[in-house]
Records
---
Amino acid sequence: MAEFTWNHTTLHARSIDPKITYLQTFFLTLEQVEQMYHYFWDEVMIHLEFMRVGVKAIPAGLQLVRYTSAERLKEIIRYHEEHGALIANPHTYILESAGRF
């Protein structure tokens, strides 16, 4: 079971296809997950885990992204944020840009 827990899926996918990257995403509702799934279809593959925040379980995604360009990755992040998802950006060296939850 350890191979299918937090971030191991991402590591396995990246070992097969080095053009895959990922985003750490915190969704506030399952409706947000469904919206992202339909909008990005196979460009952003959603891998969900659930985290307890207070008394609530929220979906957290280590989404696999088919990387094409830095500009496209920024667009994907912006779309998520505009629709209420929180991104902890693993593609920055600036801590304030990475997000703190």
---
Amino acid sequence: MKRETLNAIRALCLAPVTAFCLVSAAQAQTAPPVSSSTDMPHAQMGKGMGGSDDMKRSMMMNMDGMQKMQMSGDHDKDFVMMMKMHHQQGVNMAKAELEHGKSPAMKEMARKIIAAQNKEIAQFDQWLAKEK
């Protein structure tokens, strides 16, 4: 497989992750200042950003994993391996939404994403098992 094709696949898979990181960075720069610990009750400290931080950290690890993934030269297998990683990241993000999100609409969407992505991950695993 041509290196250009592999790079295009990587770029396609990393585009949503990159967009999320850019939006997160922009939001962090425009977010209102956080109160100091002296005027915040101890129970409130650490709330709010934990889920977002976890989601961002998870995405960064996934991006790193995709960047380091050795290409096999088999276009189908490389596609499946990268898409499986991409879908797993979607599941991880959706789980973070269920745990930390407040919007019922977004929680419902997260449930749908988890179901759909897990189904496709299982299909990727089945295909990989047959190809070995």
